[in-house]
Amino acid sequence: MRIGEASRVSGVSARSLRYYEDEGLIVPGRRGNGYRDYCRSTLDRVRVIRSLLESGLPLRLVRDVLPHLAVGQPAAVCAEFVREVERYRDGLAARIAGLEEQRAALDAYLREVRRAAPQP
């Protein structure tokens, strides 16, 4: 199928499909006229890529894990990849904790301002 239909079927924009191709994540076939031709297995891979990216994994980690997922053996993912994902997750947790501290400080500030403000 051509890129417009592939976009509709997969729920991923045509621009994202081109980007995934540019990044070497997918390799759609080509028709005689040069148009991209997406098969069902490529669209399945697109869905996996999208899911991994939406989970917050950076593109470099998605690129690393795709070959293992392609052969249907997620357990074959190397220990180093798992450590990378854990480090990424831990970094997210640290950023979240920092944001929660900032929010608490802003809440305290707003309480103080409201308490000090003259009542109408």
TrEMBL record:
Pfam family, one: MerR_1
Keyword set, alphabetical order: Coiled coil, DNA-binding
Record domain HTH merR-type: where: 1-68
Domain of life: Bacteria
This protein's name: MerR family transcriptional regulator
Gene3D superfamilies associated with the record: 1.10.1660.10
PROSITE patterns: HTH_MERR_1, HTH_MERR_2
Residue stretches in coiled coil: 82-116
PANTHER family assigned to the protein according to its UniProt record, in alphabetical order: HTH MERR-TYPE DOMAIN-CONTAINING PROTEIN (PTHR30204:SF93), REDOX-CYCLING DRUG-SENSING TRANSCRIPTIONAL ACTIVATOR SOXR (PTHR30204)
GO molecular function, one term: DNA binding
